[in-house]
Design a protein that fits this description.
- Chains A, B: GO terms for molecular function: oxidoreductase activity.
- The structure is a homodimer.
- By secondary structure, chain A is of the alpha+beta class.
- Chain A has one domain: Glutaredoxin, CATH 3.40.30.10.
- Helices cover 46% and strands 13% of the residues of chain A.
- Chain A is built from nine helices and nine strands.
- In chain A, the strands form three sheets. Chain A has a four-stranded mixed beta sheet with strand order 2-1-5-6, with helices on both faces. In chain A, strands 3-4 form a two-stranded antiparallel sheet. Chain A has a two-stranded antiparallel ribbon with strand order 8-9.
- The radius of gyration of chain A is 21 Å and the shape is globular.
- At the A-B interface, α1, α2, α3, α8 and β6 of A face α1, α2, α3, α8 and β6 of B.
């Protein structure tokens, strides 16, 4: 079974939702047969590369709320995180363009360390004092800590085309699947869960999707089995 | 809609089947909404890296048929290819371990040129006199011709771990989906087509899978919409 999770490193509910999903997955009897893939979704692609600032005044300005309200939101998020045992930097978090972080997550997917990198980037953004948007060395340290080779990380960061197409493909697919926000969980392209739902909702979704697994319907036309190659050779009609 | 095609560069029916599938896809009214992904399947992973030789005596020895029969098989394959307008080197084709070629196909996927590379590798194996198994420079030329940067290609070839996990994941998924040979076509993880079927079978499969597309079933438990972040910010409960 495959669970695809669209997220952004900028997104507090993605950080919180991942933890709730993992509570459900850890208790799921078939967890070893569940493949989890992280997919890219930029919450705000209009933020330019290099543009950063503190989240609280940015949010207040953007949505026309007071800075006090925006600061209270961060406290509320911190409380939700704490309820899961997750640290959360309620003051001083910054925002920025996440495209390069998504490109690195695709590199990490290729290297088999995507889950480790997403956890590291969440920690880098929601816990560490250093910025993941304004401090490239911080990002490199996190990526190397997650198991990537430093040269690979610097190579991808230096080449704006590297994995760019993968990020855009993920974003197109999110739109096609109807996602308008994140986190967005898709199970076997059949069931969708939107938001940082309670763990029991993820348990329900895993159970339902597991029960709905079905073998492929084989389409073979009137000719039946056609020409294939397998470990026992190619079924070649004699000329 | 997504079509995944498990193939091996060693596999004549994969070369032929791709062409038949593309005939159907070209005539399919929704072809612009069909995403095609090539996935890895090693026909014979027991062939060691560096081991190569002519296909005809290899096949004859392996399956206990005469060399004349094995040579006649190649002629038969050449005729099937010719019927599609595909060139086919009926004499002198060699075999080898395809793991590195699959790793390059994953690099090409990341760079958005996977389809171009698979066509180039088929041409390299089934048409060109140079080997794709014994002549690394031939492979590099084909990959560069398909749009990859030479340094990337050489980097992947020099690092046996690069994209290795992607190849193995594809192979595990093929086994889980019930594929025992290739080419193996999977439409939206719902329909399967095995073998180099006639184009009309692919047309039927595309039509059937298109009709069966369905929106995700949303699972949201009793709480309804949960916490998400979107372009309009995060829906944060006031603390």
């Amino acid at each position: 079974m495959r669970v695809e999770i669209w997220t952004d490193i900028n997104c507090p509910f993605c950080y919180i939702g991942k933890s709730r999903f993992e509570q459900a997955l850890d208790a799921f009897p078939h967890k070893d047969e569940v493949e989890v893939v992280h997919r890219s979704f930029e919450l705000d692609p209009t933020v330019k590369k290099g543009e950063t600032g503190l989240v609280v005044p940015h949010i207040a300005h953007k949505y026309g709320i007071s800075e006090a309200q925006a600061a209270a939101n961060e406290q509320g998020l911190g409380q939700q995180a704490a309820a899961l045992g997750l640290p959360y930097l309620t003051e001083g978090r910054d925002y920025g363009n996440s495209f390069d972080l998504h490109r690195l997550l695709h590199l990490a997917k290729d290297k088999g360390v995507q889950d480790a990198l997403i956890d590291a980037l969440y920690r880098g953004n929601f816990v560490d004092k250093e910025s993941v948007f304004a401090d490239e060395e911080h990002v490199v340290r996190l990526a190397v800590g997650a198991g990537l080779a430093e040269a690979d990380v610097r190579g991808v960061l230096a080449d704006p085309d590297a994995y760019a197409e993968d990020v855009r493909t993920d974003e197109r697919e999110a739109a096609e699947l109807g996602a308008t926000g994140v986190p967005f969980f898709v199970l076997d392209r059949k069931y969708g869960v939107s938001g940082a739902q309670p763990a029991e909702v993820f348990t329900q979704a895993l159970t339902q999707a597991w029960g709905a697994r079905s073998p492929l319907t084989v389409i073979d036309g009137a000719t039946g089995d056609a020409d294939t190659c397998g470990p026992d050779g190619c079924a070649v009609p004699q000329a």
